[in-house]
């Protein structure tokens, strides 16, 4: 029988019930009610000379007598009763005890229905008393102001204390794999600093035990483990979760042998109740550390755990504060500046600064504004369309965008991670932050894919890696993950922007109401001008015409004066009409529809030539591509421009006027050209102003309102108008319409 092999094989190994202990001590377990011996390690005989099987089932008092166990304070049974009643054995461990004249440290722990007694030597391979050096070492460790310096000092001080060949600080990442973040070693050893180790190297059940047992010693990887026996046939293996002598997994033993390590010692580092990492110590010869020294090392680990938790939180808070300050600054910009695009993207602090992103795109008011490293505008537009469909909430984030949206693989170098917040779902307005692909080389300590080996019973299992050459894995199509602090800062800025947009919308609504009122008042005013000025002007004109027709005694001078009065009233009528027309253009709604420009231009040509009756003219109409617009307004535009072209070129012989349209990129550009008087360069900036007329145009009839009306209509169509002119040679007006 076989099964699919994967990295969970190691996770299934029952390392808490190995059925064996390390051979540098011996173990006896007694039932917690009867105090009879229920389990015993076979190596008891090598330490005491008494056969292990012969002790099974006997009461602890008999054991005490046979082993000549002596303790200065209490009997063995009294000590067990004390341990049984205590919540933790830490308060009494270790107990100094004499077994047949040899000193041992007795460590008592609980195991389901039993009390476990473990006997370890009191002698240690350490040269001095570790407890005497703790104070100085802890002070030196805590002097590290940053997290990285704190860890490096910790590795250095612990190496001084236990004098192992190599001391590493090993940190677990989110996915369970580990990284050596600090290291102190003997000079002849190759460095492991910066190497990454697969999660399977320390499987999850081992990590759980590291949370319970804060220190772990493997004195000699080459020593034979001693089996634990029991008198009950079919009894469950003894649970050694809290044991200090618990045997090591064969896989881990082979792993250490592959590395050339003879002894290892670890101290757990706990942050926020979880296993943050390990102080991993390797020695290349057997080495035993006694219980008291290990306990002192555990204290260093606990102090370091608190310190690194504090330093890590401090650094994260500093970064959070930095992001928060940027968000607050952006909020201040928004309050002071009604131009949101400028407020968010063009100040010293921008929306890019509220995250650790390398680029950001603001999609607002039909424009895309970018900062830093981003995809192209076309690619951003495609991302926006994708987000409009796939973005369920107001915030969306991923650190593997190309895996979700395959088109992003084309620009994964700048956008493997995206974080987006919606400003307006209906308008597709949003802000998108980008993080680049982390195509970074991760130096693995050997290939992380463990080779598969077949066991004696034919099953397949994962064996320890046999190669420790650096192996590189390239992480493609992924970015650094988005942190909660970044998302929190984005949410704050979004709230500020939405509030400001709503505030601006309310202001616009109030302005629109006021504008409508002003329009109504302007209509009333326009009607008043139309009625109150036209009536007396009509009277002046009528009486002047009557006087000129009926009074035969008028001389030539008087007749010319009356004719000027009549002409002046006609001009005033025209001017009033043009002003009223100009005032209404801005308020007239566009009724856009396709326009047949050939038909429209030929009709305008007939009307203008019929009205002005030029003596000699060459009037040409070229290509006339259709446009979308309000036909009435567009007729006004081209009537005005063509009328001006014919009028101002009337003194040329012959007069030449040409109208044509060309399609260019995404626009249609019409031109109206003439060979007339041209425009003085000094008037270029006044051509489209109301009532502005050039000195060389005064002899031609006009009001100075026509081109101002043209410009208003063109802008209302979201089109552009400009001109080219040379005095005495003619003028060309251009109008560019966007293709829908």
TrEMBL record:
The keyword Kinase applies. It is an enzyme of class 2 (transferase). GO terms for molecular function: phosphorelay response regulator activity; phosphorelay sensor kinase activity; photoreceptor activity; protein kinase activator activity. It catalyses: ATP + protein L-histidine = ADP + protein N-phospho-L-histidine. Its EC number is 2.7.13.3. The keyword Transferase applies. Residues 528-740 form the Histidine kinase domain. Residues 146-302 form the Phytochrome chromophore attachment site domain. Keywords: Chromophore, Kinase, Phosphoprotein, Photoreceptor protein, Receptor, Sensory transduction, Transferase. It holds the Pfam family PHY. One of its GO terms (biological process) is osmosensory signaling via phosphorelay pathway. In the N-terminal section; belongs to the phytochrome family. This is histidine kinase. It comes from Mucilaginibacter rubeus.
């Amino acid at each position: 029988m076989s099964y699919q092999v994967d990295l969970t094989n190691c996770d299934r190994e029952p390392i808490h019930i190995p059925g064996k202990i390390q051979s540098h001590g011996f173990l006896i377990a007694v039932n917690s009610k009867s105090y009879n011996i229920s389990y015993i390690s076979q190596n008891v005989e090598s330490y005491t000379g008494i056969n292990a099987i012969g002790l099974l089932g006997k009461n602890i008092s008999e054991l005490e007598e046979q082993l000549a166990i002596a303790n200065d304070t209490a009997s063995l049974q009294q000590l067990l009763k004390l341990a049984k009643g205590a919540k933790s054995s830490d308060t009494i461990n270790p107990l100094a005890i004499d077994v047949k004249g040899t000193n041992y440290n007795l460590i008592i722990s609980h195991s389901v229905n039993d009390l476990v007694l473990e006997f370890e030597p009191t002698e240690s391979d350490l040269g001095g008393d570790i407890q005497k050096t703790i104070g100085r070492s802890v002070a030196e460790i805590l002097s590290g102001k940053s997290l990285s310096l704190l860890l490096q000092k910790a590795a250095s001080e612990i190496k001084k204390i236990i004098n192992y060949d190599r001391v590493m600080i090993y940190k677990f990442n989110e996915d369970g794999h580990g990284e050596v973040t600090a290291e102190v070693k003997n000079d002849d050893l190759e460095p492991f600093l910066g190497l990454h180790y697969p999660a399977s190297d320390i499987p999850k059940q081992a990590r759980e035990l590291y949370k319970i047992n804060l220190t772990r010693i493997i004195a000699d990887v080459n020593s034979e483990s001693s089996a634990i026996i029991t008198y009950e046939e079919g009894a469950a293996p003894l649970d050694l979760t809290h044991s200090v002598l618990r045997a090591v997994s064969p896989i881990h033993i082979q792993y250490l042998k592959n590395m050339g390590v003879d002894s290892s010692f670890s101290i757990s580092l706990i942050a926020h109740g979880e296993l943050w990492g390990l102080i991993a110590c390797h020695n290349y010869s057997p080495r035993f550390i006694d219980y008291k020294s290990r306990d002192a090392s555990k204290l260093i680990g606990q102090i370091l755990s608190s310190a690194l938790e504090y330093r890590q939180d401090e650094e994260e808070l500093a970064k959070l504060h930095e992001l928060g300050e940027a968000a607050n600054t952006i909020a201040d910009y928004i309050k002071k500046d009604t131009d949101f695009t400028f407020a968010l993207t063009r100040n010293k602090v921008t929306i890019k600064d509220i995250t650790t992103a390398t680029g950001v795109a603001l999609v607002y008011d039909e424009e895309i504004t970018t900062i830093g490293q981003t995809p192209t505008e076309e690619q951003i537009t495609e991302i926006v369309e994708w987000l409009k469909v796939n973005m369920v909430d107001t915030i969306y984030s991923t650190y593997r965008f190309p895996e979700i949206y395959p088109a992003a693989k084309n620009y994964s170098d700048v956008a493997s991670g995206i974080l987006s917040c919606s400003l307006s779902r209906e308008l597709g307005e949003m802000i998108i932050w980008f993080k680049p692909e982390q195509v970074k080389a991760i130096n693995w300590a050997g290939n992380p894919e463990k080779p598969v080996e077949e066991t004696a019973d034919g099953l397949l299992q994962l064996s320890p890696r046999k190669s420790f050459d650096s192996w590189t894995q390239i992480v493609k199509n992924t970015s650094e993950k988005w942190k909660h602090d970044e998302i929190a800062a984005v949410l704050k800025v979004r709230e500020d922007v939405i509030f400001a947009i709503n505030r601006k919308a309310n202001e616009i609504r109030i302005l629109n109401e006021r504008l409508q009122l002003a329009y109504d008042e302007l209509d009333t005013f326009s009607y008043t001008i139309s009625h109150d000025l036209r009536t007396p002007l009509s009277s002046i004109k009528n009486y002047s015409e009557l006087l000129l027709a009926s009074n035969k005694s008028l001389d030539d001078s008087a007749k010319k004066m009356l004719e000027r009065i009549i002409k002046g009233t006609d001009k005033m009528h025209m001017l009033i009409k043009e002003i009223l027309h100009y005032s209404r253009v801005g308020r007239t709604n566009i009724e856009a529809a396709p326009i047949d420009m050939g038909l429209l231009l030929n009709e305008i040509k007939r009307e203008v030539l019929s009205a002005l009756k030029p003596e000699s003219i060459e009037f040409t109409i070229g290509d006339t591509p259709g446009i979308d617009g309000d036909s009435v307004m567009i007729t006004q535009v081209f009537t005005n421009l063509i009328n001006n072209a014919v009028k101002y070129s009337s003194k040329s012989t012959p007069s030449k006027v040409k109208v044509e349209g060309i399609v260019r990129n995404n626009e249609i550009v019409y031109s109206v050209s003439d060979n007339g008087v041209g425009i003085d360069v000094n008037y270029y900036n006044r051509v489209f102003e109301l009532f502005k007329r050039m000195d060389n145009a005064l002899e031609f009839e006009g009001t100075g309102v026509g081109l101002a009306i043209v410009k208003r209509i063109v802008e209302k169509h979201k089109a552009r108008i400009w001109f080219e002119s040379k005095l005495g040679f003619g003028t060309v007006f251009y109008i560019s319409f966007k293709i829908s």
